[in-house]
Design goal:
192 residues; mainly alpha; Arc Repressor Mutant, subunit A; two-stranded antiparallel ribbon; 52% helix
Length: 192
């Protein structure tokens, strides 16, 4: 057994605070579609639809069940490294190794692509002419990579300007200076 292997022991009596087999089945089913009521039914919990919904809600609040959900999610979730590598592949586009030619026309080795790099495919649509494959947008992947790597941060520099108001007023023409001075005096005295 390697260091990364996680052991989940089954204790039907729940004597040690570990998940029962029903709870493990519940968690496994719950993580398929996050439908607790359906998962409770598959785990064999009886009652009406409403009571199974309550049982599921209660089970998800139990620390041992919540911990098992967290373990499963952690082992199945994408790491930040995998995320960046996936985006990098999408940004590079379809590698030439997936193209094949018979001398007259070029096609894509779809079977190999689906097996080796399915994350490059955004959608496959069947048309009257055959299958249409849409790939992820490389420009969008580059944009997301740049954001993830902090390449597009905006810098806003704030600076403090110390200006003597009398110097500003002195630089204004006489007609404007008196109007500004009155407006400032009203503002400072609370007149609006």
């Amino acid at each position: 057994m390697t260091e990364d292997t996680q052991v989940i022991r089954f204790d039907p009596l729940d004597a040690n605070g570990e998940c029962s087999p029903q709870e493990v089945i519940f968690v496994h089913e719950y993580l398929k579609d996050f439908n607790g009521t359906r998962a409770a039914e598959v785990a064999g919990w009886g009652g009406t639809y409403g009571s199974r919904a309550v049982q599921a809600h209660t089970a998800l609040k139990r620390p041992r069940v919540a911990a098992l959900v967290a373990v499963y999610v952690q082992t199945r979730a994408m790491s930040s490294h995998e995320f960046l590598l996936t985006l990098a592949d999408q940004a590079r586009g379809l590698p030439g190794e997936f193209f094949k030619s018979n001398g007259r026309e070029v096609s894509i080795d779809v079977d190999r692509l689906v097996k080796e790099k399915p994350h490059l495919i955004r959608r496959v649509k069947t048309t009257k002419y055959g299958q249409e494959i849409e790939f992820h947008d490389p420009q969008k992947a580059l944009e997301m990579l740049g954001k993830a790597m902090g390449m597009f941060t905006q810098r806003v520099e704030a600076f403090n300007v110390n200006v003597d108001l009398n110097d500003v007023l002195a630089a204004l023409p006489d007609a404007i200076r008196s109007q500004v001075a009155m407006a400032l005096q009203n503002k400072l005295s609370g007149g609006g």
